[in-house]
Amino acid sequence: MAESEPNRILVALAQMPKAELHLHLEAAPRWSTLREALHRHHGRELPQTPLFHAPDFRFADFDEFKGCFRHYIYPWLQTKRGYAELMEDVVDSLVEQRIRYVELNFNVATVDLLKLDLETVLEQLAASVATAGDRGTTIRIIAGIDRSQGSENARLQVQRLIPYPLISGFDLHGLETPETRADRFQDAWATAKEAGRKVKVHAGEMDGPASIYAAVATAGITQIGHGTSAIESPEVVNLLLERGVVVEMCPTSNERLGNVSSYQNHPILALDEAGVKVTVNSDDPTWFGLNLTQEMQRLIRDRQVSLDCLTRWTRNAFEVAIADDAMRSQFFTELQTWQQTHCPSLRI
């Protein structure tokens, strides 16, 4: 590789029109902004770089991971403009990365836990969504439903949020167990789909391929978050192919949470080779230390992924975007123009 080639690839990635389907709002602000906010609001002094950004760091378990939200994010969100400030930083990061489309997972349970006013929070989010649109980034807010709170709560939350046009869809997340698989929430999904909202779920990250099978074969879900364990079951891989399911893969997240044995063994390439429609995402960049662009850089460096692969995975994401024909066509045109400019001469 020529001396200047790595720099040229970084420039190409910076200019790439991207899409991110799996990004949690409450774990999307840049650490530097979070650090400044907690100092300004609460006088807290945080390190410039947290321990959990170290390349060899692994969370001990899901509870330790959830503790990051309680320790760092909740105190910020409890301030008067907490959600607005957090969202403003997220928008800046998305625009800076040239992410043209994002499905941003908003955890409504956090609003309730912190005893905040839902309408005020949604107004703050809507203002930032509008600003992002003016700056070239389309944001769709996806309401995250905590699977641990049960199916009846899920149904009630869907009914509660459907009247708000800002909510474009619903996602089932939280600690996976056989008792919290997506097919246990059919009433909630039926209500959401009847209202014309997208439904997708986290599945196969912690609970194995049976969780993915339940989501796709029984619940009829066609967009799966993580889905890493699909590779363990040829039957599930075939099901994903037959149903045209798009899988939102988050390699560094899965590594840091111990849901794959190593980054080198992450199944994103194997599933792509099998023909599954994979996409690449950052999931929780505040805690894992990599945004989408940096995740792509890591895939290039550590897994020798080509720009052509990243283009195909981005196209997969644009294909399922909540967008009209004109917007989707614009996304495809921008991506094709970028590919024609950069991919023929830049190979990994």
Automatic annotation (TrEMBL):
Domain of life from the UniProt record: Bacteria
Record domain Adenosine deaminase: where: 17-337
UniProt xrefs under SUPFAM superfamilies: Metallo-dependent hydrolases
Single GO MF descriptor: hydrolase activity, acting on carbon-nitrogen (but not peptide) bonds, in cyclic amidines
Coiled coil: none
Named cofactor requirement(s): Zn(2+)
InterPro entries documented for this protein: A_deaminase_dom (IPR001365), Ado/ade_deaminase (IPR006330), Metal_Hydrolase (IPR032466)
Keywords: Hydrolase, Metal-binding, Zinc
Family, as annotated: Belongs to the metallo-dependent hydrolases superfamily. Adenosine and AMP deaminases family.
Protein's recorded name: Adenosine deaminase
Source organism of the structure: Oscillatoria acuminata PCC 6304
